[in-house]
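quick one before i forget lol
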Amino acid sequence: MLFRSGDAQTLGRRMDNMYRAVADMFALPKGLNLFHGKGVCIVSPDEAQYRAIEKAAFGIEPPEGCTGLCHMTGPKVVVNAWQSPDDDQFMATLVHEATHGVMYRYGTPVHLPLWAEEGYAEFVAARSFESSPVGQARNRHGLRWIREGNPTLPLFTSNGVDGAWPGPEAVGYSVGYLAVSLMIDQKGSAFGEWVKDVKRGMPWELALKARFGTDAAQLAQTVEAWYRDHDSSLERR
């Protein structure tokens, strides 16, 4: 397809920044390619074509408002998205979905719990390029939810089929972003080791206890207390 002027180069640069951010966090050997050959990225010029590809190639009807998805089958990773008019949001979507692909290929296909899987993808999308709209939007949304006194624990313990995820207005993505940001900013090396533990097959709460000395309930309390009582610099990103 044809990209708008300069888009192909910008997309490639931002995707490279995403890969470097993940590689640095997990201390991957320089130059290591986690993908099976290459990670494939399909970009459609409009939503109709994107949805047609989803249905024909993957048998999926994307939910309303979903502008991109990452498909992981065996060793293969395919990101499918459409080039929405908001360039920064479009790039953020690509980075978010590609981060899922990198994490799938990192070590083993074992997934993190939903709050961390989505929160980390948002974290990378927020910080891998300067004009990303993700950080400001997720902070505003998550902070409002917490400061209104809403509980976060159901978002941390949801298995994805119990109806608790992603919560009202998909707030789980924002709370997950806030939680991951706090964990990485305060104890980044421990977050990386926690991910490795989960990837090796350790139950995520046991790994959380080992690396952070906390469980899901205590993590929820910590996140609520921190963002209720602090005007963090994250709020301005």
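fyi The mean pLDDT is 89.
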